[in-house]
């Protein structure tokens, strides 16, 4: 279970602010996501030393030195095992993995599968700009079929992978979709995701004005609606409704917290050898005398 170490005096935005200037393109959705993440952490009263941010490779990964706190910038497609390993070592630490659609649904897709089915108690903020932006606009598995992209000048011949259908097929316990142009909604979603008991999947539709010319900021603004804003109360515990709502993007795109199953134990809670153990693995390593093993190397 995610236990959040609340600080008595909460942080403010400047505690997460550093002097390195972002290099994202003008109009990039990363600015909104970056702002929302800092705001969510501040509103959760998490000091920068009380949370771990793990970054994949991609334009989103360039956030890793644009805010303060504990941050690790890992290998392409490997942010989930990086985050999961850190969480297993120190279950008291909230761990957030930041990845993109390219890595999450190609190089790292196996890790996503097992993170969902294992219900690792971490959050994945999936920056979904439907292309490989950092390497100048190649098609990802989520690029719209037929679109002309760099390295695919005749249009994408493959079928587009439906990320929501894929994720729901794995019986997730938390699924949300956000839009990078709606910072207040992202803040609410991120806070709920960070506090969720198990693996929280947050699919953020991100404007990429440089290379995504089919789901632009304006198009996303026009097509996205929030399930939480409807006249009828949306039931986030209804799995079948959530899956149908998430997958149906024909006319409008549902955003908000789409599904949350609160009663499923997370991966660490299911580990029999850890039952009733009060210490964390990092504490256990710290108090273990390993000198007799080290002697052979000295
Ligand atoms: Fe943002 Fe796209 Fe530019 Fe990358 S290439 S910084 S995602 S606008
Ligand atoms: Mg991408």
Compact description:
With 298 residues, the protein is α/β, with parallel strands linked by helices. The protein has helices at 30-43, 79-89, 101-107, 109-118, 163-168, 183-195, 217-223, 239-247, 281-286, 291-294; strands at residues 52-55, 70-73, 95-100, 123-128, 174-179, 200-205, 224-226, 253-260. It has one domain: 3-Layer(aba) Sandwich (Rossmann fold).
Average pLDDT rating: 95
Number of helices: 10
How much helical structure, as a percent, in the residues?
A: 25-40%
The third-level CATH topology is: Rossmann fold
Overall 3D form: globular
Whole-angstrom Rg? 20 Å
Proportion in β-strands: 5-15%
How would you describe what is shown here?
The chain is of the alpha/beta class and 298 residues long. It has one domain (28-297): Rossmann fold (3-Layer(aba) Sandwich). Helix content is 29%, strand content 14%. The protein has helices spanning 30-43, 79-89, 101-107, 109-118, 163-168, 183-195, 217-223, 239-247, 281-286, 291-294; strands at 52-55, 70-73, 95-100, 123-128, 174-179, 200-205, 224-226, 253-260. Strand 5 (174-179), helix 6 (183-195) and strand 6 form a beta-alpha-beta unit. It is globular. It binds iron/sulfur cluster (SF4) and magnesium ion. The site of magnesium ion (MG) has 9 residues, from helix 3.
